[in-house]
Amino acid sequence: MTSYLQLSNITKSYGHFTALDNVSLSVDKGEFVTFLGPSGSGKTTTLMIIAGFEKASGGAVEIGGQSISQLAPHQRNIGIVFQNYALFPHKTAVENVYFPLQMRGVNRSQGLRRAEDMLSLVGLKGFGHRHPKELSGGQQQRVALARALVFEPSLLLLDEPLGALDKNLREQMQIEIKRIQRSLGVTTIFVTHDQSEAMSMSDRIVVFEKGRIEQAAAPLDIYHRPRTAFVATFIGESNLIPATITNAMTKTADNPTLGPFDYAGGEALSDGQNVTLLIRPEHIKLSRNPIEGRKNVRMKVETIVNYGDNALVIGRAGELSMRVRVLGADVVIIKEGEECCISWTPEAVFVITK
Amino acid sequence: MNTFMRWAGFIVVLFIAAPLVIVVPMSLSNASSLQFPPPGYWLGYYRAYFTDPNWLVPTWNSILIATATTILTMALVVPATFALVRHRFRGKGFADLMMLMPMAVPHIVMAIGYYSYFGQLKLVHTHLGVILAHTCLSVPIAFLVLSANLKGFDRNLERAAQSLGASPTRTFLHITLPILRPGLIISSLFAFIQSFDETVVAIFISGRDAETLPRKMFDSIRQEADPVIAVISTLLFFAVLIGIAAPYFVGALRSRVPKPSRSAGAH
Questions:
Q1: What is the per-residue pLDDT across A296-330, written as a single tens digit (0 to 9) for each?
Q2: Which single residue of A211, A289, A320, B61 could bond A21 by disulfide (Cβ 3.0 to 4.6 Å)?
Q3: C-beta neighbour count of A39 within 10 angstroms
Q4: What is the pLDDT of residue B26?
Q5: What residues are paired with A244 via a beta bridge?
C-alpha cells in the first residue's frame, strides 16, 4: 500500500517558541492512526495544520499525492469532530448532518435522505428532528460523527472527541467509532491523551512529545518495544532501571543494586553502554522464596493497591522503587511491610537506549 | 428578619411600580389637566391623541428617527464588535474606550456639544442631526449587548462549518448570523428604545421641524399639562409590556406543540 496522507518536515513556531519540530509521517489509506501525547506536545497543532486552521511555518501536507498546503479549510474535504462536538444549535440533528451536502449543492430532499441514512448508521434512527440541546452527550457525539462522514471526506480527524463523556459511555463510543470507521474504510486520525483509548482503537499510535514524534508504531510494538524512556512511561505502567551493558554478546547487563542479569530484547548494543531497562509490572512474579531459572531480587513491600481482579504491589529493592502487578487471588500471600522475592525471565527485559 | 425583608421588598416593588400604574387611571380621566385621583372617567383623550396632528407628527418623527438610528447604529456596531472582540491590534484599548465614551459623558454635556457643533454644520432642527446624535448615544449600548453575545460564541462552530465545506461568507450567513440573531435583535431593540426615549439631546437640537415625542411631552407638561401625556405614557407602557411578554408566550407555545419532523418525507 502506498502512503495516502503524507506530512513532510512540518514545522510550526510562534515567535521563539517551536510548537512543532520537523514532523514527518505517512498514513496509509483506511488506516486508523492515533496521535497520543501530553497537552502541549504538538498533537492538536498537527491536526489543525492538516485541517488548515493553522498555517505551518514550514513543510508540506499531501493527500493522495496532491499538496493541500495552499487550500483553504473549506476546500480540503476533511471531516472533523471537535471535542465539544460543535453542533449547530439552531439546526436539528438531520439538518446538521445535511449541512455539508447543502454546501456541496445536493438538493434538499435527496440530501436529507442521505443525512437520515447516515444517522441510522451511527445508531440515531428517529432522532433527526431533535435539536442538539435535546440530545445526550453520546448522541451529540454521534451526530457530529455522522456530519463529518456524510460527505465522504478524504480524511476524518477526531480531536479528543471522547474527553467529555463518562467512562462507560466512552468505552461504548470507542467500539462504536471503530466499527463505523471500519465499515466506511475512511482514513482516520484520532487525537487523545488517554493511552488506553489509543491502545484499544488504533492501527498505529504516534507518540508526540515537545513538538516531535517520539515513536510511530503498532500499539503492541509501542507497549513492548518503546523506543524511548518517555514512551515507556507514558504508555502503561513501567519499571525503568538504569544499567550498563557488561557483555553485548551474551546479553548481560548490570545494575549496582540488582547485580548482573540477562536481557533478551534490544538492538545493536556495545559493551559499557549506559542504557535503561524496561520491565513491565505484569512480567514480574512475586513469591515467598526465590524461583529457580529466574532473576530473583529481594523486595520490601511498601504499598498494595487493590483493584479487585488485580493488585499493584509497590515496594523497594535497595535504591529502586519497583512495581509488580499480581492477580487479585495472589495478593493474599503478602502484607505491607513484609519482605518477599520478585523474579523475572530475560524475555521480560527490554533495553531502551534513549 | 424574614418578615421585615419581605415587607421591605414589597415596599420597594410598590415604589417602582406605582408611577407606572398611576398613569393608567390618569389617562382615562375627564379632568382638563393632569390630576390624581381623577374626578371622572372617559376615553376622550385617547381620541384626542389619535386625531391631533400636534401629537401625531412628533410620534411619526420619533418612530422615523428611532428606526434610522437603529439601522445606522447596527451598521456601525456589528463590524466594530467583530473587530474589537476577535482581533488584537494596536490602539484596541483606546478604541474600546471610545466606543463606550458616549455612555459615560452626561447627556446634557453631549447635547450642548451637538448644539454648537451641529449649528455650524446646519444640522440643528433637522431629522438627520437628531439621527446622528442618537446614533452616538445608541452605539455603546448596542456594542455592550452584542460584544457579550459574541464573546460567548464558540468559534469551533465556524471551524466546523468551514471543514464541512462552507466558505467564510457562507459560514457567516448560515452559522454565525443565525446563532447571533437573538443578540442582534436585543441590541437593535436597545438602540431603538434609547433613541425613542431620549429627551435631553432632542430638546436641544430637534427644534420644531424634527420634534420628537418625548420633547413634545416635556413641552406640554410645562405649558398645559395636557392629559394626553398620560394616554401616551399608558400606550408606551403597554407596548413595552407586550414586547417583553411576547417572547415568553411564543416560547411557551413552541415547547407545548411538538415540532413535526421536517424530514418526515425522507424516511
A1: 888 888 888 888 888 889 998 888 889 999 887 67
A2: A211
A3: 8
A4: 85
A5: A254, A274
pLDDT at B146: 94
Query: Which residues numbered 81-140 in A keep a CB inside 8 Å of some CB on B?
Result: 82, 84, 86, 88-90, 92, 94-95, 99-100, 103-104, 109, 112-113, 115-116, 128-129
A167-212 pLDDT tens trace:
888 888 888 888 889 888 999 999 998 888 888 889 999 999 999 9
The beta-carbon neighbor of A147 closest among B164, B174, B267 is B164
Interface test with chain B among A48, A124, A129, A158, by most B beta carbons within 10 Å: A129
Q: What percent of chain B has pLDDT over 70?
A: 94
What gap in Å lies between CA A147 and CA A309, rounded to an integer?
A: 40
Q: Which of 3.30.870.10, 3.40.50.300, 3.40.50.720, 1.10.3720.10 would CATH assign to domain B56-226?
A: 1.10.3720.10
Residue recorded with cell 446634557: B108
Reported as type and span, the H/E element at residue B137 is: helix B127-151
Read off the pLDDT band of B166 (50, 70, 90): very high
The one-letter amino acid code at B207 reads G
CA gap B101, B136 in Å, rounded: 9
Instruction: Verify whether the Cβ–Cβ distance A73 to B170 is below 8 Å.
Output: no
Minimal CA separation from B18 to chain A, in Å: 41
For chain A, list the domains and their CATH numbers: 3-232 (3.40.50.300), 237-352 (2.40.50.140)
Query: In terms of C-beta density within 10 A (0-12 exposed, 13-18 middle, 19 or more buried), how is residue B15 classed?
Result: exposed
Predicted pLDDT of residue A162: 85
- A228 to chain B nearest CA, in Å? 35
> Chain B within 8 Å of A191 (Cβ-Cβ)?
no
- For chain A, what is the mean pLDDT? 88
Is the pLDDT confidence value at B163 over 90?
yes
ipTM value greater than 0.85: no
Q: Using 50, 70 and 90 to split pLDDT, how confident is the model at A260?
A: confident
Which pLDDT band holds residue B256 (cuts at 50, 70, 90)?
Answer: low
Q: Number of A:B CB contacts under 8 A?
A: 86
Query: Can you tell me the distance from the alpha carbon of A345 to that of A186, in angstroms, rounded to the nearest whole number?
Result: 42
Q: Identify any residues that bridge with A188 across adjacent strands, giving them in sequence order.
A: A32, A156
CB contact under 8 A, B165 and A151: yes
As a whole number of angstroms, the distance between CA A317 and CA A283 comes to 16
- Chain A nearest CA to B254, separation (Å): 13
Name the percent of chain A lying above pLDDT 70.
97
CA dist., res. B221 & res. B229, Å (int) = 8
CA distance to B47, B95, B142, B143, per residue, from B80 (Å): 45, 9, 11, 8
CA distance B263 to chain A (A): 7
Q: Show me where the domains of chain B are located.
A: 56-226
**Which residue in chain B has the smallest CA separation from A88?**
B157
Q: Flag whether pLDDT at A243 surpasses 60.
A: yes
A199: nearest Cα among A231, A168, A227, A230: A231
Residues of B with CB under 8 A from a CB of A: 154, 156-157, 159-168, 170-171, 174-175, 178-179, 181, 259-263, 265-267
Alpha-carbon distance of A319 to A257, in angstroms, equals: 7
